[in-house]
Amino acid sequence: MNRIHIVSNRLPFSINLKDDQIDLIPSVGGLATGMRSVYKEYNGKWIGWPGLPSDDIDDGLADRIEKKLFEEDCISVHLSKREIELYYDGFSNRTIWPLFHYFAQYIDYDPELWEAFVNVNKKFADKALETLEEGDTIWIHDYQLLLVPEMIKSKKPGVTIGFFLHIPFPSFEVLRILPWRKELIQGMLGADLIGFHTYDYQRHFFSSVRRLMGYEISFNQIQIEDRIIIVDAFPMGIDYDKFKKAASDIFQKPLQEKSKLHRELEKYFLLSPDRKLILSIDRLDYSKGIPNRLKAFAKFLKDYPEFVGKVTLIMLAVPSRGTVEHYINLKKEVEELVGNVNGQFGNINYTPVWYFYRSMPFESLIELYSSCDVALVTPVRDGMNLVAKEYVASRTNRTGVIILSEMAGVAKEMGEALIINPNNINEIADSIKQALTMPLDEQRERMIFLQDRIKRYDVFKWSSEFVKSLSRMENIQNSLHAK
Ligand code: ADQ
């Protein structure tokens, strides 16, 4: 296979400027981990926004950043504050995000946002086109860049294009709400291979292609004139071994080397060994169902008062999209609910919810994953949800229970979790009780199946399966053109 390039909204580095020094901090997220192996192995470039608005840096500094990134085979797309506001905070996060997560009431239909989305997608496509040669392959990521596949295909048809959507693809009845639904589908259809996390999203996409464009679909192929497009499900995984190893390392550390958080957690259990911890980790996003989770925890404490004083919910929320109105309101709502639960059920020695509104270092996440008896993962919509997989990978003693929303893509791979409807507060409350009282043997039985499955299809398997399909597409394209 020839070169494979990556395009995503963000480059896999953030930039730290200190005095005259430019430091590149590698991202540790799942996407960066999975893709780093791909573009390095196939001698490609990674094209994306470096994370700094272009108005904040003068030309000299911009050149130096560019050079530094180029040493890492990264190419920057420069975006101004205004472009970020309209394309990223705007059309990506105020229009597509709510639409694709079924929050129709939150959609912003401002045509100015759409215009900026088209222009910025064109910027990404043009930047990629400067690098691309006929015969190359490119893998484009996510909802911010839905128009890029077609923008590249129309200029360089000999490039093999893959597109992967990390969020849900909604049903046609929801997608049709958007004035620019056809343009979005047309943009995606510039790709030769389109990937989703689950078969359901694939099915929804097909139905929109049929209804909006009238194209025929057979099995997983769309035929358009002399082109074939393959659409498939590739459930994204995590770097399983990294989580497993980090979790087992924690238990081997001598007491004096253990982190403050770890010692605090041990103290918590020492106070009363029958105490239990429930963990909740997300970006603070309305799609994650955080208010319902808090209401369900309060209902659980009310219905099962024997657990008051014995069970704590540790809730981490990473600040996210803080300039968008609905996120600001959500933050207030969550803070109020946390206050209510703690006010109603807490006392001097007992705080029912420990709430942290911040990002946490990897080691602390591992400590929490491995110390908490139950993971409460209740999004109202989620493309996949990697937190559920990270919890499974970190359970080295093979106990622990996951309460999981049926609306998360990951539920398709986790039949052994306690599956709930995230809008059913009573059901979540009862599942908390069931999880906390589940016999250890049953926990292990379920966890063994989960771990085997999540380990087998990790992030490296995910990216290599996608690359394999891209290589098949390249062969199909070549044979079609040879005819
Ligand atoms: P997200 O919506 O960001 O991703 P998710 O898949 O759960 O959701 O990933 C969140 C990541 O952030 C996890 O790796 C987690 O460890 C980390 N994280 C969460 N809280 C943290 C905290 N307080 N401190 C530090 N790290 C924290 C989007 C889609 C998902 C899809 C992924 C990947 O919305 O549905 O699973 O992309 O495709």
Automatic annotation (TrEMBL):
| GO cellular component terms listed in the entry, alphabetical order | cytosol
- Native species: Ancylomarina salipaludis
GO MF annotation terms:
alpha,alpha-trehalose-phosphate synthase (UDP-forming) activity; trehalose-phosphatase activity
Protein name per the record? Bifunctional alpha,alpha-trehalose-phosphate synthase (UDP-forming)/trehalose-phosphatase
Mind listing the GO biological process terms from this record? trehalose biosynthetic process
Q: Which residues of the full protein are shown?
A: 1 to 483 of 735
Would you identify the family this protein belongs to, as annotated? In the C-terminal section; belongs to the trehalose phosphatase family.
